Each structure stands twice: as structure tokens, then as C-alpha cells.
Amino acid sequence: MDMTQMIVNVSGLLLIVFVAWFFWGPKKGGYKATFTPSGYQEAEIIVKGGYTPHIVIVKKGKPVKFQFIRKEENSCSEMVVFPEFNKSAALPVGEKVTVEFLPKESGEYSFQCQMGMYRGKVVVED
Q1: How many domains does the chain contain in total?
Q2: Is residue 98 part of a domain?
Q3: Does residue 12 belong to any structural domain of this protein?
Q4: Sheet holding 107-112: strands in order across?
Q5: What pLDDT digit, counting tens, does each position of 22-76 carry?
Q6: Is the entire prediction scored with pTM above 0.85?
Q7: Which domain holds residue 113?
Q8: Domain of 95: which CATH number?
């Protein structure tokens, strides 16, 4: 194996590691949902290359209302799925789509696109 092949192989390996880290690596931080006068915990989530914010912190036992706004044409972002809450919604480009649920137990719950490439997390606190 000559030096050029070695450089190409190492570069390819580094690229694979970066892609895996970018899509499935640990995510830090979080956005605390705001309480509204109607009693809901609300957060607006932008869908463009992923979810922003991708971690939303809510309180247990209080209804949650997420408003998704899709700002891209990527087919991966056409739908959001909340498996643990048995909820899903189609996300038309440029429209605000509301997903409501009631978190009854503390813990971390995922939400994602239908392909599992865009991922987010709901952290439910006491």
C-alpha cells in the first residue's frame, strides 16, 4: 500500500466517524418549555437539517404542545414521530404543525423523523 492509498483510507475512516458522531453522538443542552396561561408547556421547534431545539425540558403531569415549523424540502423531515407517546404528524413545508401530549412519567423520550436520521429528545422532570 503506497502513501496515497493510506491517506485515502485514513481520510475515509475519519469521515465515517464524523458522520456517525454528527447524527448519533451525544447532544448537550436543552430548552425549557414555557408555560402559557392556558396551562400548556409550549416550545417551537424548527425543522431544518435537524430539530432546533433538539432537547426540550418539560414538567411531568402538565400538557405539552410542540409547534413544528419545517423550513426545508428534505424528504427526511416530512414527518415527526413520538414513539413512546404514540404520536406522529406530517410536517408540510412552511406550515406550523402542533403535536400535543401529556407526559405522565419522568424520563427521557425520543422524537425523530420517520427514517430516524433527525433526532430529538423530551426530558420530563418532576
Answers
A1: 1
A2: yes
A3: no
A4: 31-32, 55-59, 119-125, 107-112, 79-82, 87-90
A5: 767 655 568 999 999 989 999 999 999 999 999 999 999 999 999 999 999 999 8
A6: no
A7: 31-124
A8: 2.60.40.420
